[in-house]
Design a protein that fits this description.
The complex is a heterodimer of chains A (772) and B (370). By secondary structure, chain A is α/β, with parallel strands linked by helices. Chain A folds into four domains: 248 residues, no CATH class; 94 residues; 92 residues, no CATH class; 141 residues, no CATH class. Helix content of chain A is 55%, strand content 9%. In chain A, the strands form three sheets. Chain A has a four-stranded parallel sheet, with helices on both faces. In chain B, a hairpin with a 2-residue loop joins strand 1 and strand 2. Chain B folds into two domains: 163 residues, Rossmann fold (3-Layer(aba) Sandwich); 134 residues, no CATH class. Chain B contains 17 helices and eleven strands. In chain B, the strands form four sheets. In chain B, strands 4-7-10-3-11 form a five-stranded parallel sheet. A two-stranded antiparallel sheet of chain B has the order 1-2. A two-stranded antiparallel ribbon of chain B has the order 5-6. Chain B has 370 residues and is an alpha/beta fold. The radius of gyration of chain B is 23 Å and the shape is globular. The chains are: A alpha/beta (772), B alpha/beta (370).
């Protein structure tokens, strides 16, 4: 096994990533060994970024971001993107070594394979990996670890680790600590099957790193190697030959600001430590006045901080509770054989002393503690840090459009999108940033073409705000393209190929329209045509119809050249919907509204010259639907309304059907309101213009029992919603006249007085009492 | 052989406690405690290496299955000045845990107040022997100490079972004792101040199905640390508990019968799945309103076992097991029986298809559920 030998020409220092204890002992090892060269496990193609990490104005958490687009399909599906992060915290041993080297003027090198090469070496086995590159995955999932955990009485592997390496490890001498870690890692390695090492690319990486170590040893007399402890044995005895780089995948590497939240193992960062905020605090104490009490002091501070926050939120929490939590944490540490209380004793202490009563799913004290131990720090990069072309383009665009990024205050822009070309360009830019999901701008008011709401508005009001998070998101998206436009176009096409729903596809077209993106190659158009043929979902096609109609109508308004043959697409969609329509008789209640708006849209379209040839087909399908035995009453009404619009002779049939519902069995009678709802949505003029309809409707209502009428009333109100208040007054006046009541007598005071409310209440209570 | 139905914890584990005490020489021991916190933990959670005591090898078994960290927190709470309040659904072994803690820490688990709607302050603190009171006046010998008095005087733990079932004003009589650690008996005049001896503390248990802990005054809540005890989350563990507890009950009833692991597995699975509302195969199950506690599972198992012992020639019958399940459903039986039937006709049917064997027999026994 490896020995911790300060006289050797090469010292292998094993670490767990982001472990403060490892970083602490590494500081000591660096001072004792004083290497001439420091080698770090990290992608060698990020070597040029190292000065940024150790720059005085850089602030952790930071990360290297590696991304690539596999256009040729070397790794899997062609066009797929891959990305990963290599985070650095203050307590990351790697960063400790880099900082020491920068200060001592010693060369530091990254020696691991580039991300693309690791992917290539894993390509055959693992195509659907999580994006975070995890080399400690074996650590946490081995039976060996489960046994360790069980034997030591820890609840999780991380608790075991904290007890033996973090807390008790700090109190050890560096050689003893490193030896313990060597032992542990050798055991972990021994219990990992070689096949797994091959599959996840570990062996290829180790061969590569071993070669780099060899090269450094030829130049320097004292080389320090900092790698995951798991790899030490593999580096000393590589089982593979280092291979020359395989295929040239275009890979991008950038520095980016990171957050504690993203670095938290509990939030999914697989090779991190849980609760980085807690360990950051410990790390700060280790370099403070009382390093020997680093854990105890951190626990105390966090108990007090949690208590303060709870009191702020109005919880009754006393100093006695805090004392009790601290006593609990200390007592548990003693019971568990820890020299100081750690994260788990802190959690237990808060749980015991702060929570009064039964612990449920939501527990404020534990939630607050979780936030505090995760931490909320966000890193910062030096001003001259390398930024990807996408972010540069973003900033250039902002400058061109006059959006000032110097402040992180929220700002607002009101855009006259139809009259000002510059405003239109700004609107497109905002829509692009929304599409890239970089949390820069948000449309607070304006026409929503995708949601088909507020389409009559002529201004867009945007709230926007520049922040570090936007930059991070842009770095994250930089794999999609070099400019904002390019990235959006790529994503648009990518999403189009992913969807199988025509409604979604047409929605993407609308988004592309808003972003002002052209489709020179016609790929989007071609995809959508295919979707329109293959999609068998009626409602998805209905949505597509709506979207295409929006595009057709808005094209001129937005002064955009017709990139697409909207008429052709819409006509194709129209045809598809017509073939599916006859089977839609028995829809669900919640499907009525979209169905009615689709029918109305189709009907209106067929009045236009370009779709006139569809009119006859539409009407015959509607007539056929009427014969369906389980036709939804609302749809029934809507169809009759449309047919009446095409031919007023349908009025008699409408009256007959209406009477059929209202005079039908009670169950059918209760559906009549729904019928009227459908009818009025399509043919309001039937009531307003025709002289006969209202009297016959009135006659039908008059025949109803009072009880039935009351049961019907709520839905009837919905049905009459389609009329404007003015029209309702007119209808009411005519209805009143039928019963010999003058219109004036209908007027009710604008506000109901209290006594009337009381009387109504009493009446309702009596009725309810009688019913019960 | 003793005829006692249920031996006290300190008697049942007499040897283990003695062996632990003998070996417990190095660890610090809080004043008034019979064992150190480490030894208390070992007693409840078991220890790997056996102990040598008076020439014999004594294995300290794990007695509380489930959450180890919870037990550790309980022990540490009791070393401090606050009381310990165990809350949770019925049948989650709160009482057993409180008994074990008291037996290990004070050597006595019977200094207990049973909370009921009729509990009065007399039953908690002290009352009088009226004959002596009349003849001697208020003297210490005329005073009849209740568990709280006893605990303070002797420096031992006082257990307060089902504390939330007692009226709030009676619960609140604990407040002054718990904060000042002194009990005033005004009738005794100047000698009436009883100061609590080291080792005194209170373990309360409260059942979330009864009147909840919400109705407890916040003044009293502040004097307790709360621990929520959850049902056993693991079928295998639940099965072990059923077998172990039923065997212990059988032994004390003088019943010699081999345990039936298959029946225990069926029961543990049924109870676990009905409690969680989802089966191991992913079926969504309507949860019965009755408490599907492990204690209830033990009693169903024991009932079936007794039936087999006295009527069935010593072999447990699966049909009887299924029939006894309805007994566990309690008062709300009507609807719950329907839910149980539903469970059999979906989950158990699929298990019978997939696993066969004992599950098939279980499924065939479904007609016994009435």
């Amino acid at each position: 096994m490896t020995r911790y030998d300060l006289s050797a020409d090469c010292l292998y220092f094993p670490v767990r990533h982001h472990s403060p204890a490892c970083a602490y002992h590494l500081e000591r090892a660096l001072e004792a060994y004083r290497p001439q060269c420091v080698l770090i496990e990290g992608p060698e193609n990020a070597g040029h970024l190292l000065p940024l990490l150790t720059h005085p104005s850089a602030k952790t958490p930071l990360a290297f971001y590696c991304a690539l687009r596999d256009d040729k399909g070397d790794l899997g599906e062609p066009g797929e993107t891959y990305k990963c992060y290599y985070p650095f915290l203050d307590c990351s041993p790697e960063l400790t070594a880099l900082r020491w080297a920068a200060k001592a003027g010693v060369e530091a090198r990254l020696i691991d394979l580039p991300y693309s090469q690791i992917l290539l070496s894993r390509a055959q086995e693992r195509r659907e990996e999580r994006s975070i590159y995890q080399d400690e995955a074996h650590f946490s999932h081995k039976d060996f670890l489960e046994r360790l955990r069980e034997k030591t009485g820890a609840r999780t592997f991380d608790e075991f680790w904290e007890t033996y390496f973090e807390v008790n490890g700090l109190a050890m001498e560096t050689p003893a600590f490193v030896s313990l870690l060597y032992t542990y890692c050798a055991l972990a390695r021994e219990t990992t099957p070689p096949a797994a090492l091959l599959a996840d690319g570990s062996l290829a990486r180790e061969a590569h790193m071993a070669q780099a170590i060899e090269a450094a040893r030829r130049t320097y007399g004292r080389v320090l190697v900092v790698t995951g402890g798991f790899h030490v044995e593999g580096l000393r005895h590589p089982t593979m030959e280092a291979a020359p780089p395989k295929s040239a995948l275009q890979e991008q590497v950038y520095p980016m600001v990171y957050s504690m939240e993203a670095a938290d193992a509990l939030q999914g960062y697989a090779s991190g430590m849980p609760s980085p905020g807690f360990y950051q605090r410990v790390w700060e104490h280790l370099h403070g006045e009382a390093p020997q009490d680093a854990y105890g002091d951190s626990v105390l501070e966090l108990i007090a901080a949690a208590g303060r926050r709870l009191r702020h939120q109005g919880e009754a929490l006393s100093v006695a509770d805090e004392t009790c939590a601290l006593d609990m944490a200390r007592g548990l540490a003693a019971l568990r054989g820890k020299v100081q209380p750690g994260l788990y004793e802190l959690q237990d202490g808060v749980r015991s002393a702060f929570v009064k009563g039964e612990i449920g799913l939501l527990c404020l004290p534990l939630d607050i503690l979780r936030q505090l131990t995760t931490g909320d720090q966000v890193g910062a990069l030096p001003d001259d840090a390398l930024i990807p072309p996408l972010a540069v383009d973003f900033q250039n665009q902002c400058a061109k459009l006059g959006l000032r990024l110097q402040t992180s205050q929220q700002q607002q822009s009101t855009l006259q999108i139809f009259s000002s070309p510059k405003h239109r360009a700004t609107s497109r830019f905002f829509h692009r940033t929304v599409f890239l999901d970089c949390r820069f701008a948000k449309l607070s008011k304006g026409p929503d073409l995708v949601g088909q709401k507020n389409q009559s508005l002529i201004r867009e009001i945007w709230d926007w705000r520049w922040s570090g998070g936007v930059m991070a998101a842009l770095v994250d998206q930089s794999v999609s393209g070099g400019t904002v436009e390019e990235a959006c176009a790529y994503l648009l096409e990518h999403r189009m190929t992913q969807t199988s729903l025509a409604g979604e596809g047409a929605g993407l077209l609308v988004q592309g329209f808003l972003m002002g993106l052209d489709d020179p190659a016609g790929t989007l158009h071609g995809h959508l045509r295919e979707l329109l043929v293959n999609d068998g979902d009626f409602f998805s096609l209905a949505k597509a119809c709506g979207h295409l109609n929006t595009l057709l109508e808005m094209g001129r308004l937005y002064r955009q050249p017709d990139t697409y043959d909207y008429v052709g697409l819409l006509d194709q969609c129209f045809g598809r919907v017509l073939t599916l329509l006859p089977s839609m008789a028995a829809i669900q209640d919640e499907q009525l509204a979209p169905c009615l708006s689709l029918l109305s849209l189709l009907y209106q379209l067929s009045a236009k010259a370009s779709f006139a040839h569809r009119r006859a087909g539409l009407l015959s399908v509607l007539e056929r639907l009427l014969a369906a035995p389980d036709l939804h009453p609302g749809l029934h009404g809507g169809i009759l309304g449309l047919l009446y619009g095409a031919d007023p002779d349908w009025r008699e049939e409408i009256e007959r059907t209406c009477g059929g519902y209202l005079r039908g069995t009670r169950e059918k009678m209760l559906l009549s309101a729904s019928f009227l709802r459908g009818l009025f949505s399509m043919a309001r003029d039937l009531v307003l213009v025709s002289d006969q309809f209202l009297p016959s409707l009135d006659e039908l209502f008059a025949r109803l029992e009072e009880e039935d009428f009351l049961a019907l009333l709520p839905e009837l109100r919905l049905a009459f919603r389609y009329f404007t208040p003015m029209e309702i007054s007119r209808i009411a006046a005519r209805a009143a006249a039928l019963h010999g009541v003058a219109p004036e007598r209908l007027r009710r005071p604008a506000s109901l007085d209290y006594a009337y409310g009381e009387a109504l209440d009493a009446w309702a209570a009596k009725r309810l009492g009688a019913g019960a | 052989m003793t005829r006692q139905i249920r031996p006290r914890a300190e008697e049942r584990y007499q040897e283990e406690l003695a062996a632990l005490a003998a070996a417990d020489t190095k660890e610090r021991r809080p004043l008034g405690w019979k064992l150190s916190p480490k030894a208390v933990r070992d007693f409840i959670l078991g220890r790997d290496e056996p102990l040598q005591y008076q020439g014999r090898t004594i294995q300290v078994a794990k007695k509380y299955l489930g959450n180890d960290a919870l037990v550790e927190r309980c022990v540490i709470t009791l070393t401090g000045s606050r009381g310990l309040m165990l809350v949770g659904e019925p049948g989650t072994a709160k009482t057993m845990l409180s008994e074990l803690l008291a037996a290990a820490i004070s050597g006595v688990s019977t200094n207990t107040i049973q909370g009921t709607a009729g509990t009065t302050e007399d039953m908690i603190k002290y009352s009088w022997n009226y004959a002596l009171l009349l003849s001697q006046g208020p003297t210490r010998s005329a005073l009849v100490p209740a568990p709280l008095y006893v605990g303070m005087e002797k420096g031992i733990l006082t257990r307060f079972e089902e504390i939330t079932r007692t009226p709030a004003e009676i619960q609140d009589s604990l407040i002054s004792v718990m904060s000042d650690k002194v009990l005033n008996v005004p009738e005794l005049g100047e000698d009436g101040l009883l100061f609590a001896q080291a080792g005194f503390n209170v373990i309360g248990t409260a059942n979330t199905r009864d009147r909840g802990v919400n109705e407890m005054s916040s003044a009293l809540k502040r004097r307790f640390n709360f621990e929520t005890v959850r049902p056993v989350g693991n079928v295998q563990m639940e099965k072990e508990i059923i077998l172990r507890e039923a065997a212990a009950m059988a032994r004390s009833a003088g019943v010699e019968m081999a345990p039936d692991a298959g029946a225990a597995e069926l029961l543990a699975t049924t109870f676990h799945e009905l409690r969680e509302g989802v089966s191991s195969m992913g079926h969504r199950i309507e949860k019965p309103s009755a408490v599907m506690s492990t204690a209830e599972a033990v009693s169903v198992y024991y009932q079936t076992m007794m039936g087999a012992y006295y009527y069935g020639g010593g072999a447990m019958e699966i049909r009887a097991l299924a029939a006894n399940l309805t007994g566990a459903l309690g008062q709300e039986a009507g609807e719950d029986v329907e839910k149980l039937r539903g469970y059999f006709s979906t989950v158990i049917r699929d298990k019978a298809d997939k696993l066969g064997g004992i599950w098939k027999a279980y499924y065939q026994a479904r007609s016994a559920i009435r």
